[in-house]
Structures are given as C-alpha cells and as structure tokens.
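The following block was generated as part of the benchmark described in Methods. Ligand: ribose-5-phosphate.
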Amino acid sequence: MFGDMKIFSGSSHPALASGIAAHMGMQLGKSRITRFSNENIKVKIDENVRESDVFVIQTSAPPVSDNLVELLIMIDAMKFASAARITAVLPYYPYARSDKKDEARISITARLVADLLHTAGADRVLTMTLHAPQILGFFRIPADQLLATPVLVNYFRNSDLSNSAVVATDAGAGKIAGHFAKRLGLPMAIIDKRRFDDSEEAHSTALIGEVKGKDVIIFDDEIATGGSIREAARILRTFGVRRVRVGATHAVFSGTALQRLQEAELDELVVTDTVPIPIEIQQGVPTLKILSTAPMFGDAILRIHGGRSISEMME
Ligand code: R5P
C-alpha cells in the first residue's frame, strides 16, 4: 500500500481537475508552472510528495504538444521529488488518432506518447474512451481505460427512447455504439464513412440497418472538426430519420467545428467535459449539453489508490 494520496493539475483543464478533487473531498496539490519567453517550461512542486501516491491530471487540449511536454516535466519533477508512485491521468489521450501504421513512413504517435510517459517516470496511466482499445497495448506500465458509457447512457435513459435507434458513424465506432445500444436496449445501424486524404472531410453514402421514421442517437468517441457528425446527420436525413441526437465522449471541437455543428442542425448534442469547451461553441450551439466526468475520474483514482477494481465501474 502506498502513502498518502495527492492530486496535481497541469494547466490544460483546471476546471476538470478541481471538479475531480472536489468530488473526492480533497484539495489540489500546490505546484507552479512557468513558461519562459524562450518557450521553455519550468515546473516547481510546492509541497512535499516524498513517498506519496501522486496523480497528475492533464488532458489533451490546445496547445496539445506543449501540454504533453508540461505533463512529462511534472512527472519528472514528481519522480525526482521521491513520489512513491505516479499516475498520469489523461482524460483525453494525446495523439489518440495516430494509433496505426496505415501509410508508409508515418509515426504511430499514440505509441510514442506511451513511451514518453513511461520514460518520464509514470508508473500508471488512467484515461477515458481511447480512439481504439489497442492503445492500451502500447504501454509497458499498467494502463486503465474508463468508458464514458455510464455517464452518457444515464443521460439518454432519462429521455423518450420509444422508436429510437443507435447509430455508429463508421465501422470503427461500431463496437462502442453497440455497447450503448445494448445498454439502452435499442437496435443499431452503421454508416459507411470513408476518408480519402488528410483534409478532415468525411464522406458517407450507405447505411446498414433500419432508421426510417426513427429518432436516432449517434454515438462516437470524439468530435473533432464535426465533419463526421455533419455527414452522418445529412445521410441519416436522406434515409428518413425523425430526430438526430448525438452522444460523444471527447468534445475536441477543432478547426471549423462551430460552423459544421451549426450546419448539422442536431436536435441534441451531448458531450462530456474531458476537454475544455470553447465559449464560442457553448454559445453557438444551443442544443449542446455537457456532462461531467469528474465523479468517474474521482472514483477511479480512489479505487486505484485502494487497489480496487476499475472495470466494475463500467458494469
Ligand atoms: C474517427 O475515427 C473518430 O471516431 C471520429 O469519428 C472522428 O475523430 C471525428 O472527427 P471529425 O469530427 O473531424 O469528423
């Protein structure tokens, strides 16, 4: 068993880190992060962490690469301040979409991030809804993946689900959407989505499953530029659906997301707070609903500290 538990936050998402600490009835640990004019980052841990069980919370949010380096420096500082164990808590895992070698001469950067965390001194990783579950296999240290399923399912369960179906935006999302469909007791359909280049444009033409006249809930792991969701909403309407609602874990909302989400004209867009959501999007998409993952992360941290199961949280 490790010593006392301490939770620290990087600068990517202080609101979520505070929410996690508040759920656990704890204060965030004291640290100072300085960014110099030459863009170097200095981290100073302002309290004793000797023999402590330390959790460092840092999500992947802009500036993504800077925040990753800041996390690595925080872990290094904790390690050399003699923390007994360091868990990197990554609500949204950096470079998660770079998880396969689907072109010649490219980096599997999600694996490189796993190596960097280990090299910096992380003993464990806690994250949520990976783009692909095989990313867990990139680690040489224990890594736990939470799923936002309970949070999203509870939300949709409290709405009218008669005559509804769950939709996956592509075959890759089929597994996770299937998980939602099973928990909500709904049938499922899958869109045939293709990408032909790096332009962040998705194209869909076909759909497997029955959706005519139904209220659909599209589930996806993340929304980045909103292209997949806009394209999914478009094709679903050509197949005669009634209402289009969306449930997604990571609200990355990058690039032209605001415009694309407005064009998608969704009846409801439900996301979690694993990344900070820009105020323009919150104000520009009136159907947006943000659910908190802080209680899940807080409970998971308590379970890791106490040596209890994480998987039973998703049952
Ligand atoms: C793709 O494999 C993912 O599951 C998401 O569908 C994708 O990341 C969404 O990206 P965008 O919003 O840019 O279409």
